[in-house]
Amino acid sequence: MALNIRTYRDLTEPDRSALVEQIGAQRRRVADRMAAVRRVLAVLSGKGGVGKSYVTAQLARALGRSGRLVGVLDADLNGPTIPRLLDAPGGAGGGGGAGGRGGAPRPAHADAVEPAAGAEGVKCMSMALLMQEGMPLAFRGPESESFVWRGALEAGVLREFLADVAWGALDLLLVDLPPGVQRFAELTELLPAPPAVLVVTIPTPESRDAVRRALRAALERGAAPLGVVENMVGGPFAGSAADDLAAEFGVPVLARIPFHPRADMWDRIAQCIGGAA
Description:
- It contains 9 helices and 10 strands.
- It is an alpha/beta fold.
- The protein has an 8-stranded mixed sheet with strand order 5-6-2-7-1-8-9-10, with helices on both faces. Strands 3-4 form a two-stranded antiparallel ribbon.
- Strand 9, helix 8 (about 240-250) and strand 10 (about 255-260) form a beta-alpha-beta unit.
- Helix 1 (about 20-35) packs parallel to helix 5 (about 145-165), helix 2 (about 50-65) packs across helix 9 (about 265-275) and helix 7 (about 205-220) packs parallel to helix 8 (about 240-250).
- The termini are far apart.
């Protein structure tokens, strides 16, 4: 028996959801908010454990010290760490605000929520500012159907972090992405144009292969690769991941961060990123 399945475009009853109109309105809100942001840079690795959030935060702080207006959107909703790395008040597990426990509502005005202000004036928004310390991210809904709606709700959070946060005028908005490529795909769907991409790897071949897959997926969506940062160099991890990726994709190795970096190294890396971005 054939099923007569209708799409949202086919619905004509008064209670139709107007899904297409809603999506269009959401994208216009994102475009309006991002109009004051000169550049969006997605920090991507494709896998966990390479220090991507650490690189994102330290780079943001160094760019802030150089006089640039910088924001960080923590798109790792289930493992957020950016506020703590930026010494922003209110980050779960971090210092400042309400004992550093997170979970407090962010100040809001008009149609926007205020981001937190971290070290060197870096603005940030993260689930760590909204969740209680040690508590997992949980959405309201029937648990038996969470596999259906959780992805859509996480994409909705990303949209709200872009459209409903008062980022203001920024020279650069860094987006710290979680492992995998799904969140990057959602990001490109929301932004008016694909962001530039900075990839972070450790030297090992396993990291290289994961980053390769993620970078290919980003390029297929129109992203411009900025370069490769190789982290944890000179430690227990051996390999030539950064050189391999640079040769394969025709991008520069922007920095090799030693296992125990010197504090002033981030300022030199910021000069490279600032010039390229």
